[in-house]
Design a protein that fits this description.
- By secondary structure, the protein is α/β, with parallel strands linked by helices.
- Helix content is 62%, strand content 11%.
- A hairpin with a 2-residue loop joins strand 4 and strand 5.
- It is elongated and about 120 Å long.
- It starts with a helix and ends with a helix.
């Protein structure tokens, strides 16, 4: 995909791009026409006889132009100047119009291509398995969506367009130069291989260095993001100087690499300009000797026009190697973007998915194993979450509780074994259909910088204010919401920063209540609540779990003593299973956990 990356996103706009190059051609043609017209017109205007024209053997174009200008001069030489001035004005006006239209068109195409790349990257991010984000820095991922996309636009898209349009302009100008004097133009072309060789020499290793630069840029964003997130701990441990020194050291390394790359890139322009100036001087000397030689076909007037056209070719010719530099520099950003887009999603959706069933039995785990790469987390899990009953999962930290419940909504796929909803395998059901029938309350309360209403109704716009208020009442959240300045329309900041931990958790519970799904998963739902709020929310949970298949992960064992079934996990295996009283009587792992909590 790396080779055809640009083509994939540019292809939908191929017609507009072709039109852009046509407009570039027209603008260049009118630019050349204005200069050539001046030469021919002035020659006819100041010549006593038409036979003294520019060349000894005039071409068909010379004949046509001379005939046209002779008709203008027939109105009088002074009037002819005004007519010709108006003609040149029209030619320049058309040149500028075509130049503007070309720029207007290609800017729109570039912006749409970048928009589509960002959309593709963002969609890929939100569909990637959770395991990917646990192994990669958030700052690096953010850098690919922002810095790398901008780098691609500035150094690849822009340079490709500049390269092709530059080649078109150079070819058209060279055509005009060949028309005036082919032998002189052939001599000029000798320098181009030299420019190409020097350009290749300077750009050596530029691609590899640019990739390292992009990685370091992502690391900088990651360091900043981690520092801001952990600012409270940094200040509490008086580690401000330590973190600052780390950042300064890394930033200095980043700056040195950036200087090295940009020095090489910036070297392209002065070298090209030096070679261009050398060409002009050599051309001036060589052309002048040719004009002064006997029986020369090149008149002084036309040689001046030749020099003007040649100076106008220098900039687009100079832009060609610069474009090559930038494209090589931008290839690093392409690789980092494609690296994300090419990641295969481990969650394989069925080609012909079955609708989520009306559960009669429950959720069944059959010989389920799961591993993160080579680390086996769950081993031969065989359990049943019965319909309409509450099942609690307990165990020490790292025993695999959260991983186990993440398998139910297909946030991960089992390494082996299968999960059944009644008799239908989860592999036969689309993940969206499964998740539509599950309500979550997680340990890490995820709220968005939006209104409380939109946070509670997150994922659907079909709920009314009355439904939202009812859900908030059940979650014991209505009392503090009503006291806020704008009630349910109050914005709560990034991750709900304007609310306390308990308030955020109750908003999350209200969201689950509103969804009213048949399956309810509570992962440490009361962990952020004080004793009073925990009691209130526990009552609310007891009400909403009635007639639902409820799965609860809890460290506070006091919250699950009334569960229909308690499953004890230890090092990824089911060690005990039963009610609270049954497990206490076994005097096993669960009993020891209760003793530690003085339950």
């Amino acid at each position: 995909m790396r080779r055809y990356f640009t083509w994939i996103f540019v292809k939908p706009y191929l017609g507009r791009i072709i039109l852009y190059f046509i407009l570039v051609c027209l603008a260049t043609i009118f630019s050349i026409a204005s200069i050539l017209s001046a030469s021919n017109f002035l020659n006819v205007l100041f010549s006593q006889e038409l036979s003294n024209n520019v060349v000894s053997n005039p071409s068909l174009l010379d004949d046509l132009l001379s005939s046209f200008y002779s008709k203008i001069i027939a109105y009088g030489r002074e009037n002819a100047l005004y007519i010709f001035g108006a003609l040149i004005f029209v030619i320049y006006f058309l040149k500028d119009i075509f130049t503007y239209l070309a720029s207007f068109l290609i800017s729109s195409v570039r912006n749409k291509v970048i928009r589509n790349i960002r959309n593709s990257l963002f969609h890929k991010f939100i569909t990637l398995p959770l395991s990917y984000f646990s192994k990669h820095r958030k700052g690096d991922l953010l850098s690919r969506l922002s810095n790398d996309v901008i780098e691609y636009d500035e150094n690849v898209l822009k340079s490709i367009m500049a390269l092709v349009s530059g080649l078109i302009i150079v070819v058209l100008y060279l055509t005009a130069l060949f028309y005036i004097d082919y032998s002189l133009t052939l001599t000029v072309l000798v320098v181009f291989p030299i420019v190409a060789f020097i350009s290749s020499f300077i750009s050596r290793n530029l691609r590899r260095s640019s990739k390292i630069l992009q990685q370091k840029s992502g690391n900088i964003i990651s360091i900043i993001e981690q520092t801001i997130s952990g600012l409270r701990i940094i200040k509490a441990h008086t580690a401000i100087e330590l973190m600052n020194d780390r950042f300064v050291h890394f930033n200095s390394s980043y700056t040195r690499l950036r200087n090295s790359i940009y020095r090489r890139v910036d070297l392209a322009s002065p070298i090209s300009e030096f070679l261009g100036n050398a060409m002009v001087i050599g051309l001036l000397l060589f052309g002048s000797s040719k004009v002064l030689s006997p029986n020369s076909s090149l008149s002084p007037e036309l040689f001046i026009v030749y020099l003007i056209l040649f100076t106008m070719i220098i900039k687009p010719a100079k832009d060609i190697p610069t474009s090559f530099f930038n494209i090589k520099k931008g290839k690093a950003s392409i690789e980092r973007i494609v690296e994300i887009i090419e990641i295969e999603n481990q969650i394989i959706e069925p080609d012909k998915p079955i609708s989520f069933p009306k559960i009669e039995k429950g959720i069944i785990f059959k010989d389920v194993c799961f591993s993160y790469e080579e680390n086996l987390v769950l081993k031969n899990i065989n359990i049943v979450f019965e319909k309409g009953k509450t099942t609690a999962i307990v165990g020490a930290s790292g025993s695999g509780k959260s991983t186990l419940i993440d398998l139910i909504p297909k946030l991960y796929e089992p390494t082996s074994g299968e999960i059944l909803f009644d008799n239908i395998s989860s592999k036969e059901i689309h993940s969206k259909s499964i998740r539509d029938n599950i309500a979550f309350v997680t340990q890490d309360t995820i709220l968005f910088n939006d209104s409380i209403f939109n946070n509670i109704t997150f994922g659907s716009s079909s709920y009314s204010m009355e439904q939202v208020k009812k859900s908030a009442e059940i979650a014991r959240a209505d009392s503090f919401i009503e006291k806020l300045p704008n009630g349910y329309n109050t914005f709560i900041g990034d991750r709900g920063s304007t609310l306390s931990g308990g308030e955020r958790q109750r908003i999350s519970i209200a969201r689950a209540v509103l969804k009213n799904a048949d399956i309810l998963i509570l992962d440490e739902a009361t962990s952020a609540l004080d004793t009073e709020n925990e009691r209130l929310v526990q009552e609310a949970i007891s009400n909403i779990t009635k007639d639902k298949t409820s799965i609860i992960i809890a460290h506070r064992l006091s919250t699950i003593t009334n569960a229909d079934k308690i499953i004890v996990l230890d090092k990824g295996e089911v060690k005990e299973e039963g009610t609270h009283s049954e497990l206490i009587s076994k005097n096993g792992i669960y009993s020891k956990l209760c003793a530690m909590q003085e339950l």
